[in-house]
Design brief:
The chain has 91 residues and is mainly alpha-helical. 58% of the residues lie in helices and 7% in strands.
């Protein structure tokens, strides 16, 4: 599921991006803080998030997407591997 969220961000039209609604329990939620984070077990939370996404102005959607795409591009598997190896070396 984490890769699907990141693929969704990567596939957006920069001129008219959609809104990512993501479970706050997903591993990607920590990285993708500019998504609309929800408790997927709460129907009220889900319905509120859908309303927020549908009502979100284009300027806000673009601003959120720009932050998300930077995160997806910069915090990739190579970055994760380098950080992991650095942490191992420091032990």
């Amino acid at each position: 599921m984490n890769l699907v969220a990141k693929e969704y961000i990567a596939a957006q039209d920069p001129a008219d991006p959609g809104v990512l609604i993501l479970s706050r329990f997903a591993g990607a939620a920590q990285q993708l803080q500019d998504a609309v984070l929800v408790n997927p077990h709460s129907p009220d939370d889900l319905s509120h998030a859908i309303k927020v996404a549908l009502d979100m102005p284009l300027a806000e959607r673009k601003a959120r997407w720009e932050k998300l795409i930077v995160s997806v591009r910069d915090e990739n598997v190579q970055d994760w591997t380098a950080n992991f190896c650095r942490d191992l070396a420091s032990e």
